Amino acid sequence: MEDADSASASPLVVSTAPKPESGVDWGHLLASTAAFLTVSHSFRYATESTTKRQIHTPFFPRYGDAVANLHGWADGDPFMVNYVGHPMQGAVSSYIWQHNDRAYRTVEFGRNRKYWKERFRGMAFAYVYSVQFEIGPFSEASIGHIQNFYPQVGFVDHVITPTIGTGWAVAEDAVDRLLIQRFEARVSNPWLRVAARTALNPARSFANLLTGNLPTHRDDRPGVLQAFPENAAWAAATRRRTQSDPVNPPPGVAPFDFTFHAMFRDYVNNGGAGPCMGGGGTAAFRVASEWQWVLDVSGCKMLGFRENFSGDALTFVTGPRWTPQTTGRWVPHLEALVGVTKLTQEYENPVLKAQIADAHTMTDEGRAARHAYFTTDWDTAGFAMQAGAGVDYKLNSALALHVANLEYGYSWTSDINGFNYRNAVQLSGGLVLHMGTW
Fold it and tell me: What is the pTM of this model?
């Protein structure tokens, strides 16, 4: 029988591995989101005359009127704002989410399920942030009520911000892993490392500031002042993080797919008007092993108009899609969809516009009323159908690349200002999330 001294000299030691982080840091997430909203709306107040004038008007009923006035696709903003500025906003909000999503902070770009799962979690948050920024209680609709005034009435930002913004974040992640990390492994100068991390990942850098970190911060590796390429532990951890998950989908098929895509549409024999560029989202519900029912919402801004002309298109279509089950990574599909489309076009007469009094002396209501004096609007809506084929490339059980989808569309619409928009050829591509397989 051991005595007390002997027992105390050789105690039983039990070691436990630390539990992995999980859950969302909601407090820090809300604080970072509030900071982003504050910066965004402060910039709006400093640069938008309508917001400055309308901020002092009563909250009700102006807020409700702004939300109820939303319709169509375009919102009057230039191409760079809609298709560059707002996607960057979506990428920043996605990175804010990732920094506070504890179990996914350190994921890196690659063919691994955890990374893509996080990117789509971030896209969901980017959508929520976008809706709040546009029409929420602390939004463009509540601060300035700008949707009350033409042309700030379209839904383009609701779609483009989270979808193309996610593509922006994926691109920055790829640059970080494939370019920045290789650069840092060969260059020891800390200032060059700072420049590379900041300039080549602008959305992540801004999100870092909003979350209380340096622009060069990375959750997945040391800072720029540390010689981490020589750090064996860091190198081993990087190899583990970047290993690809095997592409072995589980038995069965996904009950639901969500696709976000960019698109290019060319109207055939339309009298010389230019193409239409935009994007959208597609929900596909599995109804049989090889059949899905598809709902697609997309919009685009018409390009190539003469000076003082503008236009846009908004399309809602639904129908069946055939997707044969294959054992390989390439999955083709055929689809035939029907629905409605609405096309709008506007011309601003520069001579009549010049006759209007100085905009700074008008009320916003007066500007909206006088807008009809120097503009001519055309619109047409009608039944639409589109049919085509495409192919996806499976990355893993959760994600696929929507490599290409080529479709022909026809709409029973009237000519607009002499242009025929009835025949169209459309090419699109994007990312597909398979739900229910992981």
Answer: 0.67
